[in-house]
């Protein structure tokens, strides 16, 4: 599954266009490398996403084309949340 679609389906980012923009700005890393929106995501991958002054690290648990809102949180596990700067 494409990275931008995973971010949207898992509800880490609300809209796919926003996920694409964030990724193109270099604020998403896949397994330690800066990722492109079209990068392939699979279970076991580690994502780092910069949200403003916060860096969130998650592990991909499963990939699905569509899930209900209640199940979206099961697609990933948050490993770490840390502040940046200040």
TrEMBL record:
It comes from Insulibacter thermoxylanivorax. Transmembrane segments: none annotated. Residues 1-63 form the RNA-binding S4 domain. Associates with stalled 50S ribosomal subunits. Binds to RqcH, 23S rRNA and the P-site tRNA. Does not require RqcH for association with 50S subunits. It comes from the Bacteria. SUPFAM superfamilies: Alpha-L RNA-binding motif (SSF55174). This is RQC P-site tRNA stabilizing factor. Key component of the ribosome quality control system (RQC), a ribosome-associated complex that mediates the extraction of incompletely synthesized nascent chains from stalled ribosomes and their subsequent degradation. RqcH recruits Ala-charged tRNA, and with RqcP directs the elongation of stalled nascent chains on 50S ribosomal subunits, leading to non-templated C-terminal alanine extensions (Ala tail). The Ala tail promotes nascent chain degradation. RqcP is associated with the translocation-like movement of the peptidyl-tRNA from the A-site into the P-site. Pfam families: S4 (PF01479).
């Amino acid at each position: 599954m494409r990275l931008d679609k995973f971010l949207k389906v898992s509800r880490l980012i609300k809209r796919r266009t926003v996920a694409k923009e964030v990724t193109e700005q270099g604020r998403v890393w896949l397994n330690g490398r800066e990722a492109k929106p079209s990068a392939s995501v699979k279970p076991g991958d580690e994502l780092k996403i910069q949200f403003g002054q916060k860096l969130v690290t998650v592990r991909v648990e499963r990939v699905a084309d569509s899930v209900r809102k209640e199940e979206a949180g099961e697609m990933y596990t948050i490993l770490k949340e840390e502040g940046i700067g200040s």
